[in-house]
Amino acid sequence: MKHLKTSWLVLLGLVAVPYVLLVVAGSIWLWDKGLLLWWVAVSVGLTLASWPVMRWLRARSDARRRAAASSASGDRLFGDVSPDPGWPPRARQAWDAVEAIARRVQHENLPLDRPDAIWKVVYEVMDAVARQYHPNVDEPAWEMPLPEMLGTVERVARDLRKVFSENVPAAHILTIGDLGRIKRLADGIRQFNILYRLVSVGLNPVSAAISAVRDTASDDLWSTSTEDLRQWAVGFCVRKVGWYAIELYSGRQVVDEAALRAFQSPESIRDAARAQAARQRLAEEPFRVLVLGQVKSGKSSLVNALFGEPRAAVDVLPRTSHVEPYLLQRDGIPRAIILDTAGYDEAGEAADMFAGIEPQVLQSDLVLVVVSALLASRAADRRLLDELRAFFRGQPDRLMPPVVVALTHVDELRPLSEWEPPYDLARPTGPKAENIRDAARTVQEELALTAAEAVVPVCLKPERLYNVEEGLAAAVFHAIPEAQRVKYLRCLRQFREGSYWQRLWQQALGAGRVLLTAGADWASRKLGR
Question: Which domains are present in the chain?
Fold first, then answer.
């Protein structure tokens, strides 16, 4: 390599000889004619005049850089790494910490050829995520099982290999040594370019100044593009490590994903067997819909209306705290287990009411609240919903099930004599429709519901059945995507709890077989002596 460099320098020197002689001869001629000082003055003046042009080109280059940094080109090149919509609040907080690290590291000159510097950033990301889940541990990043840590490394490496293989030209051909040799060649070409510029200044200072401005702008634009590419690559890697770290420390990462897909919770198996004893084990986990409401609000009638046939007993007296499951299978609604609960009243305390249904809430994917349009006070419903919201605010690892409110007995609103559905509640044309719309808005406000939590007016009397199919079933179906995320976390949590002891038992059996084999080998060697 040293001999090759010397040969290039000799060749460049021979090429430069006539130009150097020309500069010397031209300088002598200018001196002899008395024009040398004028030539120097004109050259300096033109060079100074080119300075504003250089500043303008540099400003344009910086503007292009800012535009490139704010565009989505990096996302299109490396792929968008964004938080999972199904993450609970604690995972969202961990992602905010990852984003802060990614933005900081992108603007640092991270030495990509130093593994210790890269590992420092990786450890910082994992530590920031782990502290969200293990805040009281000195080194939370190590609070993970070894197989799952190796699985995370495997997933990150797989994604990075795919990105660079598909988007970096000749990535499958060039070796790391080739990249080093290309860098040294580029440095040599840059040195030759400097020599060429020096010679050009002597021959034609005006042209040399213009070329210098153009080359400087081009170099700056190339450096800007290279820097943007580096920032995108670093940001992608940091966010990808953080994404998988959140999956790992939150317990969402599952080694045996095939077993998870086949998993069904014990509660659903038990309730499905009670609802339909002859039915075999469900092929897939159904949605679990919890029906809540005050006494005489129409919960049992709602269950019957959903099934299209009598299923729940419409009691004259309040039922006990028993929860009755019903297996719902009908067109337009995914298979679900309806959990009909006992009614509550105004006299009950919110904490007591919620304590009675808390186990069912933890095993539910959607909450269906039944509210009567004839009740003057809905304070009990509001207290129960407030208790439900407070409970999930204190459980950042869980998602609150979506809430759908069924407003019953709307046929008994004034005027009592009128009942001619369907009613256009968006543009009511009569007093009945206006009263139904106003009642729904009042419930929305009194229960502090969000825009995503629908209030659906219904009539559940068999001879006056109204808005169950087109309204209530549609609202439940609309809430299915959010309920799907809740169901996934519920099944994942139960799957991990169930598989924990099973895997521990399998590992114990494996270790026992190893010890028995080792003991047998030791005994055979002893006896062989």
Answer: 35-249 (no CATH), 266-488 (3.40.50.300)
